[in-house]
């Protein structure tokens, strides 16, 4: 069966599970024309050798096995209990989309270089269509005020569960909404026999973050190393080839949003060459 490709952040990625093997297409004019999904993709990106033993420069963060709070460290269990004294977790309802987007906006203020900020209409349309896409929106709410202070956007796939997005209002991080959400979702989905693993996304290239180390050290996720492959649109590769020679210089100018976007592509190119 031919692999379906979807448009994401100026790139095409295969619409399959990370552990599945893609069918390599012919990267001809028809591929770039028919796979755009409303955008103008600069490249196609895919992975192979998922969860291999070799420590590569690209990975997914996944958790396998069952989940019980007793598996966690004493301090983590304490933090989770503290979190549920200040907040609670449930699915976000239709009339709470504006609250969720306010939390999203507050979270993004920390990402000065990020260029993938989504509009309210984009978030709203996806949210209202969530049941057709097996998507689940879980929110952490402050107990006293019922304010939405953090959320997960997740997708239920056939063999695995995916945390697509996690955002938190920085003003409420002391209440540990992340601990509450992780415990809730892992407890709900990790113990289903048909779920092989929970994925929390791949290595972040768009901005620096310590979130993945938090998931590894706190909730038992691990790096599922894999190999990255890139195929550029024909008009793009000559530009990348030239700019790659100046990648170290461009890193010094990363404060500019355009240069930051270029550096992200060059970083992917560097990983793919390894």
Explain how this protein is built.
The protein folds into two domains: 62-226, Aminopeptidase, CATH 3.40.630; 235-274, no CATH class. 34% of the residues lie in helices and 25% in strands. It has helices spanning 29-34, 74-86, 97-108, 120-128, 177-189, 211-219, 237-244, 247-251, 257-273, and strands at 5-8, 11-14, 43-48, 58-64, 87-91, 135-142, 148-156, 160-168, 197-202, 222-232. It has a ten-stranded mixed β-sheet with strand order 1-2-3-10-4-9-8-7-6-5, with helices on both faces. The model has no long low-confidence stretch (mean pLDDT 92).
Set out the fold topology.
Blueprint: E1 5-8, E2 11-14, H1 29-34, E3 43-48, E4 58-64, H2 74-86, E5 87-91, H3 97-108, H4 120-128, E6 135-142, E7 148-156, E8 160-168, H5 177-189, E9 197-202, H6 211-219, E10 222-232, H7 237-244, H8 247-251, H9 257-273
Parallel strand pairs: 2-3, 8-9
Antiparallel strand pairs: 1-2, 3-10, 4-9, 4-10, 5-6, 6-7, 7-8
Helix pairs in contact: 2-5
List keywords for this structure.
2 domains; ten-stranded mixed β-sheet; globular; 9 helices; about 25% strand; about 270 residues; alpha+beta
């Amino acid at each position: 069966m031919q692999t379906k490709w979807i448009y994401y952040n100026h790139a095409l990625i295969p619409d399959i599970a990370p552990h599945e093997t893609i069918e390599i297409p012919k990267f001809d004019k028809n591929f770039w024309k028919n796979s755009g999904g409303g955008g103008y993709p600069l490249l196609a990106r895919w992975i192979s050798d998922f969860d291999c033993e070799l420590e590569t420069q690209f990975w997914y963060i996944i958790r396998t096995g069952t989940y019980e709070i007793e598996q966690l460290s004493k301090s983590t269990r304490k933090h989770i209990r503290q979190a549920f004294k200040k907040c609670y977790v449930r699915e976000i309802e239709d009339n709470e989309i504006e609250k969720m987007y306010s939390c999203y906006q507050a979270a993004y203020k920390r990402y000065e270089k990020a260029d993938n900020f989504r509009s309210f209409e984009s978030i709203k349309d996806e949210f209202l269509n969530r049941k057709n896409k097996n998507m689940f929106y879980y929110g952490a709410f402050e107990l006293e005020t019922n304010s939405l202070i953090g959320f997960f956007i997740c997708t239920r796939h056939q063999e695995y569960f995916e945390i697509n997005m996690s955002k938190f209002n920085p003003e409420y991080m002391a209440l540990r909404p992340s601990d509450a959400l992780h415990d809730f979702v892992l407890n709900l989905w990790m113990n289903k026999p048909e779920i092989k693993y929970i994925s929390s996304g791949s290595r972040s290239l768009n901005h620096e973050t310590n979130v993945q180390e938090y998931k590894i050290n706190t909730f038992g996720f691990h790096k599922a190393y894999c190999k990255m492959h890139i195929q550029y649109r024909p008009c793009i590769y000559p530009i990348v080839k030239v700019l790659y020679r100046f990648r170290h210089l461009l890193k010094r100018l990363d404060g500019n949003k355009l240069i930051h976007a270029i550096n992200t592509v060059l970083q992917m190119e560097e990983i793919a060459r390894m």
